[in-house]
TrEMBL record:
Signal peptide residues on this chain, from the entry's feature table: none
UniProt subcellular location: Mitochondrion
CDD domains on file: POD-like_MBL-fold (cd07724)
Domain Metallo-beta-lactamase: 84-245
SMART domains: Lactamase_B
Swiss-Prot/TrEMBL GO biological process terms: glutathione metabolic process; hydrogen sulfide metabolic process
Protein name per the record: Persulfide dioxygenase ETHE1, mitochondrial
Alphabetized Gene3D superfamilies for the sequence: Ribonuclease Z/Hydroxyacylglutathione hydrolase-like
UniProt record similarity statement: Belongs to the metallo-beta-lactamase superfamily. Glyoxalase II family.
Organism field: Seriola dumerili (Greater amberjack)
Subunit-structure text: Homodimer. Monomer. Interacts with TST. May interact with RELA.
CC terms in the record's Gene Ontology section: mitochondrion
Length: 302
């Protein structure tokens, strides 16, 4: 055997399967809070996989952050750049019944165009809370879509066709969303959980590696801490977390990730309250316009 051939066999023997190599690469990359390359790549390709777990051994239905875990569900995640707001469209592809979560006034034409292109019957447009950084499009959308109903928490103080409470269900085809009241950012914050608990739309209560501020609109750090731990962190680890906003380009997380890595909500209640009371954030630019408009379904002076 030649020296060159012997060396080739040694190299070949040292090569591991691609799955192990990929897993090792992900483990060795530095994992700093919220913004590291490894964390971003891991969430983007394998949002349901915990750190240190071989991503290729995960169920193939987890491979893309923009796909739903539930079979027979049409799902779209849409983005509005000025307020960094996510709008979510969910539909039953058989019945064509659909629900829209947290629509923004500036993107109403985009959203209606997509709904039309997909041939959907939008039944309900729901807001996770009374937003302070943008105006909802639910009121104006009702004028353009016959039969559409708006929805929001009863405790938001806002007007809507449907005022939601804990345990209420929003049905669309064979699917439904269940309301979990998660106050703390505002009194009227809700998390909407898909029937099989594979997806949770957390509004501003739980963000990716963060949470909503608690220094205005009935904000209360203790309420928010209790809400997240009792109503969201009790969901299955692999449940996908889809927040109302993200300011770092992150699209999705999981309950297991946030329970383990969220830099605020992994602290004790006392530490969390201290953090939230000392954020010293600037006032939202549009709060004086957005809140009054959103209290009347977004049709104030429109």
């Amino acid at each position: 055997m030649t020296l060159r051939h012997h060396h080739s066999l040694e190299v070949h023997a040292r090569v591991k399967p691609v799955q192990r190599t990929l897993a090792l690469t992900l483990r060795l990359r530095p994992n700093t809070e919220g913004s590291s390359y490894a964390a971003a790549e891991s969430r983007r390709f394998c949002p349901g996989v915990s750190a240190g777990v071989n991503p290729l051994s995960a169920t193939t239905r987890w491979y893309c952050s923009r796909m739903a875990l539930t079979e027979g569900l049409l799902f779209r995640q849409l983005f509005e750049s000025e307020s960094s707001t996510y709008t979510y469209l969910l539909a039953d592809p058989e019945t064509k019944e659909a629900v829209l979560i947290d629509p923004v006034l500036e993107t109403i034409d985009r959203d209606l165009k997509l709904i039309h292109e997909l041939g959907l019957n939008l039944k309900v447009a729901v807001n996770t809370h009374c937003h302070a950084d943008h105006i909802t499009s639910t009121g104006l959308m009702k004028k353009r879509l016959l039969g559409l109903k708006s929805a929001i928490s009863k405790f938001s103080g806002a007007s809507a066709d449907i005022l939601l409470l804990e345990g209420d269900k929003i049905n669309f085809g064979k699917h439904y969303l269940t309301v979990r009241e998660t106050p703390g950012h505002t009194d009227g914050c809700m998390t909407l959980v898909l029937g099989d608990q594979s997806m949770a739309f957390t509004g501003d209560a739980l963000l990716i590696r963060g949470c909503g501020r608690t220094d205005f609109q009935q904000g209360c750090p203790k309420k928010l801490f209790d809400s997240v731990h009792q109503k969201i962190f009790t969901l299955p680890d692999r449940c996908l977390v889809y927040p109302a906003h993200d300011y770092l380009g992150q699209t999705v997380s999981t309950v297991g990730e946030e329970r383990k890595f969220n830099p605020r909500l992994t602290k004790s209640l006392e530490e969390f309250v201290n953090i939230m009371n000392n954020l010293n954030l600037p006032k939202p630019k549009k709060i004086d316009i957005s809140v009054p408009a959103n209290l009347v379904c977004g049709v104030h002076d429109v």
